From TrEMBL:
Keyword rRNA-binding in annotation: no
Membrane-topology descriptor: Multi-pass membrane protein
Locations listed in the record: Cell membrane
The entry's keywords: Cell membrane, Membrane, Transmembrane, Transmembrane helix
Protein known as: UPF0114 protein SAMN05216522_10823
Organism: Rosenbergiella nectarea
Main location: membrane
Similarity annotation: Belongs to the UPF0114 family.
PANTHER family in the record: UPF0114 PROTEIN YQHA
Transmembrane segments: 12-34, 54-75, 109-126, 138-156
Amino acid sequence: MERFVENLMYATRWILAPVYFGLSIGLLALTVKFFQEVIHVLPELFTVSENDLILLLLSLIDMSLVGGLLIMVMLSGYENFISRLDIDESKEKLSWLGKMDAGSLKNKVAASIVAISSIHLLRVFMEVRTIDNTKILWYVVLHVTFVFSAFVMGYLDKLSRHDKSAH
């Protein structure tokens, strides 16, 4: 009976598979939005201000970082919690695939959030004349919180890895 319960619990990890696949639908939606923004600016390319173009480009960079984050979470999460990805040797394999444990994934997610927050904060500073100072202060506080959290998570991960290697 114990073995049956343990095997059943272990098999429930597959419940996460549709969640990771669902992230690919989010990636598709992000790609559509990305090209919608590109197509939207193309007719106005020669008349759009430099500042507006930079803001658009920052938005596109933001979307690409979120897309990369989705790929990382989707593939690493699948490999860490469900099953190894069986990729043909003839196909190109991402260098980090199979090397990222849950702790590394959390640190990459935290670093990506900091990068995304940095880009958002840069966008806010580019529009500083139109944004209330109180809002700017909250954006900065939030960004510093993300940076601090990422630093603490990285430090704690380093400590836990050091403790494991010491034993």
